[in-house]
Amino acid sequence: MTTTPPRPPSGISIAGTGSYLPERRLDLTAEAARHPASDAERIRATGYRTIAAEDTLYPGDMALIAAERALAAAGTEPKDIDLIAVTAIHRHGHQRLWSPASWLQSRLGATRALPFTVAQGCNAQLLVLDLAADLLSTEGRRTALIVATDRFAASGFDRFTADYGIVYGDGAAAAVLTATTPTPAPATPTWHVLDTHSVSDPELEGLHRLDEPAPETRALFGAEHDVRAAKKRYLAAHGTDSLREATRTAVREIREALLPHGTDPAPRRVVYPNLGLPLLQENYFPEFPGGADTSLWDFGATVGHLGSGDQIAGLDHLERHHTFDTGDRVLLLGAGAGFTWTGVLLERR
Known about the structure:
Elements: E1 2-3, E2 12-20, E3 25-27, H1 28-32, H2 37-45, E4 50-52, H3 59-74, E5 83-87, H4 100-108, E6 114-118, H5 124-135, E7 143-150, E8 171-179, E9 191-200, H6 218-224, H7 227-238, H8 241-258, E10 269-271, H9 277-283, H10 297-303, H11 310-321, E11 329-336, E12 340-348
Parallel strand pairs: 5-6, 5-7, 10-11
Antiparallel strand pairs: 1-9, 2-8, 2-9, 3-4, 7-8, 9-12, 11-12
Helix pairs in contact: 3-4
């Protein structure tokens, strides 16, 4: 297990967030009833109430809406964006070699930006945020746009049964990151990135891999979307405690790195991945102040796991539905295949 080395305090802020979440929500109880009894029981046990489901827009379309909302919230013009990163865990609806980040760059008119399309599991957006302090430190690069977007509807990926303890929702979430300078308080509130900490455990990469490489065939397309089968093989070989122990260890390290003084001060909110409730209760809630009480489970339970977009979508939800005072803190926590975990500690400025 590896960790990010210590570094000086971050010099970036989240100047604005935006999200697109479909109005259509699938009732979990009704959807569970459509599945065989064994699957239905597992689906209900996840604890979600509804799942965000998009019928029309593809990931790029949702990303564009979220990005425009984030730019408007930040008061940033597309021409001023230096870096664009698009993260996703599922297909984009176009040919494999197509670049979603370049498409978004074109649609926004962000002609000077450098585009990146990042596939590093459900932690990809927070990993990019973690790297942003270095990416924005070079002279002339001051602003980044990071967008997570995924749509699982009408695909070979069954959002209800493809994974253990998780149901996947559709949507997009975006944030505008800006390099900060020692100036008076900003005219509009921002979230200053106090610190970040990432942990990597590559021994767990096999959770999402077939035993052996397979040739490209039409039949393989379905197998590639069966996350549960790969996990079952891995856990049978390495024991069911391996992922749990690695997760608890990584999450504890992030807590100790970002909250060395415990609850002084404690984050008002901790935005966890929108995993099923049993997974959160077992692996995440016990490690942070307030546990479930400071989480956004009430929000996550209505949209599902949004791929790599849970944390920024959650922060955008907080921006629109809650009031924060200067000095309030929020902690974002991500986890994704590979396996990696990232914590981001924010303070209201």
